[in-house]
Amino acid sequence: MIHSGSTIYDIAAEAGVSIATVSRVLRGGGSVSAATKARGEAVIARHNYHPSAIAQGMTSKKTYTLGMILPKLLNPNYAMIFTGANDEARRQGHLISLFPMRGLIGDETEAEPPALSLANRRLDGLVVCVEYLPPRQKERLQSTLKELRQYMPIVLIGCVPSYFDYPAISYSMADMTRKTVSYLVGLGHERIAMIGGTQEDQDENRRDVGYLEGIREAQLPYTASYRAFCRGTAEEGETALEAMFASLLPAYWPTAIIALNDLVAMGCMAAARKRGLRLPQDLSIIGCDNLYCAPYLSPALTSIDTRQQELGAKAVRLLLSGEKTRETTQWEFVFRDSCAKYKP
Amino acid sequence: MIHSGSTIYDIAAEAGVSIATVSRVLRGGGSVSAATKARGEAVIARHNYHPSAIAQGMTSKKTYTLGMILPKLLNPNYAMIFTGANDEARRQGHLISLFPMRGLIGDETEAEPPALSLANRRLDGLVVCVEYLPPRQKERLQSTLKELRQYMPIVLIGCVPSYFDYPAISYSMADMTRKTVSYLVGLGHERIAMIGGTQEDQDENRRDVGYLEGIREAQLPYTASYRAFCRGTAEEGETALEAMFASLLPAYWPTAIIALNDLVAMGCMAAARKRGLRLPQDLSIIGCDNLYCAPYLSPALTSIDTRQQELGAKAVRLLLSGEKTRETTQWEFVFRDSCAKYKP
DNA sequence: AAGATTTAGGAAAACGCTTTCATTTTTATC
DNA sequence: GATAAAAATGAAAGCGTTTTCCTAAATCTT
To answer: Per mean pLDDT, which range of A141-155, A291-305, B260-274, B312-326 is the poorest?
Structure first.
């Protein structure tokens, strides 16, 4: 076996041709006689030669590498997005590199965002998920993106606020939540609580906007105690619902919970059980994201399939197509056992 | 704002120095007068100039990019490994790119492994997780790795068979399973089933090796019906246990299950419930990996914490250190409610 | 103040490819 | 068989850095 450091010069020398010809053999362009081509290919195979993508990048100005920035991979939901994006990227001959949001805009506690190590990577594009960010972090993200967009095209995904002026694949969170309220109202619920994301955002496409619309449409009295906020982990969901229980007389406890996501819904289940509530008779819970574990909880969790894998794939397609459109994705309810008719 | 395509020549021209000096300012090497340095830095800042990592790679022969190959990201377990690896890599100034195993060695159904798109990337290293592979796939992986190792250092992680001759961070699956059997025996169980990974592997560090040792130590009769194999999803776990129930008279049903991982354990829970078994009174189940959802299942799942995040970080450290050692990681039981004393 | 050091900074090569342009060889045309 | 057109190939420039080598300027010796 010949050592791996072969360059195009080694191949050219051994095949008795110029490097230009080797390059032509490699990429199939130009015109090469059948004999030369065969000889070149033989030498390439013998050396097990792979042209350096980074040298190729020097001339082509392409790296065939995309970046993806997600809040946190530990929510399996994001793993789905990444999987979808990764498959599509590879189908189109690209690598995709994952970065945590934290690495890009730093922690909430940090005074300064971290040094940007992305601008120098000359990525062919960047997919950024803008969810779960408190306002201050969103501002940081905005200025960071503004800088990065000079270097590479950017596509945003998730529940994208309208004031982000980028091509995007978004879902209509407000609409989704409004319809969720209707669904629960249809089951007879009148005390419907929501545990949503950060509240101070100015955009219209928020969970709580849809929630309020739904409550108003159903002509239910609006109670601020039925809205809680958290950042999307099971622990936080548990804490949030515990706090809600603690702050209300049992007669006023909600009979249905709309959870930010399935993790939060899991936390809510735990909190409800601690209070001795029967699920779903005493409390209906609906999650969001339809995690793989949702059907295995007891009761099996009713959720919303936001088609995250498809979302990831779409984002990559949009990015590589170069179009500047903003698209809204579909979603659908996945009915299981955690939501029941309310019987007073 | 000056456009983003600035090169070192633009900076040099505007600062009235040579590109060599700009380079020195950038990397802090050589000697540059304070005045020149200040001037250079000002121009760099004004242009918002970031040297191209790929051009740097041309000379330095380093890409500061690592690759990581995992079976499937959808098991949150692997998301943990990636997170740990990613954090450590960034701490050491590297990017890390994730690839699915499928992209490397193809599907079981494919006749040929896919074209290798990694060799030409000149990564600084590669972390490969070798779990959940049927024998034929393992062979493929071996030859693929043999080729790749000419280009970059490789570290293996997971339950690494001893016939893989690479630096590795491994856990001792056999030992773990043997102790799991002991634990269940200690609870009074005598019919202990195991749902493990692929069976035809020759290595000694396998779940079923440990399982058999444990059974033998406890002087329990060995029954082949108590061993099932699957590839690690909840659905497969459910199917496997259903099949086991179907093949045995109820009096011989196992009273305890050792599941390959928490997903499989979830599937087993579902299968048990379908048969009307009470958990954990009628059937104890222990998982592995301690997924975030384990405490939220009912009963809360007893599992094994294999410290995956740490595993990922360790792998990166080993890779970047250049050492060739093979290390074994720690693990520990996480006792919850899914395993109970057996009362006949 | 003259020589010896040290410091500062420029010129140019090198990294491994792609691509354009020019030249040579082959093939087609009459 | 001479000429035109097409095909095959090589030379060289260029991509954006780093780094070595060298010269010029500044500083230190005595």
So the answer is: A141-155
CA dihedral A227, A233, A238, A240 (to 10 degrees): -30
Report how far apart, in Å, the C-alpha atoms of B260 and of each of A191, A292, B169 are: 42, 17, 19
Q: Which nucleotides of D are covered by protein (CB under 7 A)?
A: 7-12, 14-20
Mean pLDDT over each residue of chain B, to the nearest integer: 91
Which pTM does this prediction carry? 0.89
Cα-flanking dihedrals φ and ψ of residue B258, to 5°?
Answer: -100, 115
Helices (H), chain A: 8-15, 19-27, 34-47, 53-60, 76-91, 101-105, 135-148, 173-186, 207-217, 234-247, 262-274, 308-321
pLDDT band at A74 (very low <50, low <70, confident <90, very high): confident
**Contact residues, chain B, for A263 at CB < 8 Å:** 292
Distance between CA atoms of B194 and B208, rounded to whole angstroms?
8
Q: Which nucleotide is nearest to B7 (CA to C1')?
A: D16
- Please say whether the dihedral angle defined by the alpha carbons of residues B26, B28, B30 and B34, taken in this order, is positive or negative: positive
* Cβ atoms A192, A226 nearer than 8 A: yes
pLDDT in tens, B235-244: 999 999 999 9
Residue B20 has pLDDT above 70, yes or no: yes
pLDDT at B114 over 70: no
Domains within chain A, CATH numbers bracketed: 8-51 (1.10.260.40), 62-170 (3.40.50.2300), 174-305 (3.40.50.2300)
Closest of A167, A138, A143 to residue A153, by C-alpha: A167
Count Cβ atoms within 10 A of the Cβ of residue A109 and give its class: 0-12 exposed, 13-18 middle, 19 or more buried: exposed
> Which of the 8 DSSP states describes residue A304?
E
Of A201 and A164, the one with more pLDDT: A164
Which structure tokens are listed for A272?
């409800």
- Angstrom distance, A55 CA to C16 C1': 5
User: Which residue has tokens 């945003």?
Assistant: A156
Q: How confident is the model at residue B1 (pLDDT cuts 50, 70, 90)?
A: very low
Contact B83 A95 (CB under 8 A): no
